Amino acid sequence: MANLWVTKSISALQNEAKESHEGGLKRTLSAMNLVTLGIGAIIGAGFFVLTGHAAAENAGPAVTLSFVLGGIACAFAGLCYAEMASTVPISGSAYTYAYATMGEFIAWLIGWDLILEYMVGATTVAIGWSGYVTSVLRDFGFQIPAQFTASPRTVLIEVPNAIADKLHMRHGWTVLNNEAIKLFNTHGVAYADFTQVTAIINLPAMLIVALVTALLVVGIKESANVNDVIVLIKVLIVVAFIAVGLPKITTVNWGGKFIPDSTEWFHYGWSGIFRGAGLVFFAYIGFDAVSTAAQEAKNPQRDMPIGIIGSLVICTLLYCLGAIVMTGVVSYRMLDVPDPVAVAIDAMGLQWLSGIVKLGAIAGLSSVILVMLLSQPRIFYSMARDGLLPSVVARIHPKFRTPWITTIITGLIVMVAAGTIPISIAGELTSIGTLFAFAVVSAGVVWLRITQPDIERPFKAPWIWFTGPMGVLCSIGLMITLPGDTWIRLVVWMGIGLVIYFVYGMHNSVLGAGKPMPRDADLATSAAGTLE
Hints:
The chain is mostly helical. Helices cover 65% and strands 2% of the residues. It has helices spanning 10-19, 31-42, 45-49, 51-59, 63-87, 94-101, 104-139, 161-167, 178-186, 203-218, 224-245, 269-280, 288-291, 300-329, 340-348, 351-385, 404-420, 423-451, 464-481, 484-508, 520-529; strands spanning 155-159, 172-175, 196-198. The radius of gyration is 23 Å and the shape is globular.
């Protein structure tokens, strides 16, 4: 059982970095480069997809404050990530960091948690993608049958455009929930006469996952130029949305109060703001891209805090302004949809901007789905390399040279999930999984300061005895605000992981058994050889 806590030495990780050609990175990134890198990585899926749900169900217009709380939690965790990334000199994730500091057992928990995070994260974004695609196709006169655009048993109602404009609702089909019924009754709308259907499955969400999975199996090289263009599009869309929406804000849509009175625990009021922070935390996923660039910063001790805090401040400001516009142009109670920005644009009545924003959102969300489904096999591969999972999960296709088996398995699971579960469940699972990883990394940095105080750290998190514990406490604090059902799902998933570890991983661990670490080429050749 002692091997549960075996750790990878820093020197071993350095050797891995050299072997995989990840060492010796050039220090070329300035503070401004790091800020723009962070903005590009952060702005995206969370804002376009989950802001509406957090506003409608939890925080109301005060979802703006939820973004502030989420940004503060990210700042502490981000500084810890930056120190860990510069200390553990290999491109990697919380799995690698945990293996170097807290031992194999904790690393397994984190790796298994990351698998959940990437899968449900891709699921959440795919559901949002479906909402925007359905909306933009409707604008061009093509209607996907409503029963194939949402999770099973979701009741949808087709609202005439004249009524939608009057009530500041989205055009066409919308979810018939309690808030919609209340709005109809308040304005004396006989909604029972409108066409209603019950959804069967979300086919567009399944389609995009299938297409991206097929691309990843065949093999696709990420283009830096294309990615830069998509990043620019995402940022410009948010800025344009804010610029044209600010003059159209009316506090009437806030219902009289910026912070709605709490109707029950975590439903509006300050408790709702904190739960909203736990949910919109999804919007900050990606900021760790700045943290992992510590080895490439010209002056990491000065530039890393500027890059992390600077990008978080700018993104938080954009998110807050965007949330004010979103809840100011349409009732926040009507934003519990996968495509809240599209709903807000429709409520503004700006047809010339509507298509541009929706198409840009689709492009941005597509890139996020690709990155998340691309990242999943890397986690599997790392764990298989360490002997914690069977080598079959790292099998390489003999022709395409891609990890095709895990890519297909991941794609099938995400495809089914995207077609059948509500966006709220997927978003909450993504947030709780990410927060768990952030808490472990924050604790790991403090632990490494205690156990290995003399190792070289190109970047040291400032005030670590405050920053580290606050990273842990903020992450756990936001986790606590998430629904009990989300905790149950996380516990069940982690329980499955524990069974796999104690039945297989613990007994086949390369490090625990003192075996030499297999080379990447050997593992790939061995895996590919089984296909012949």
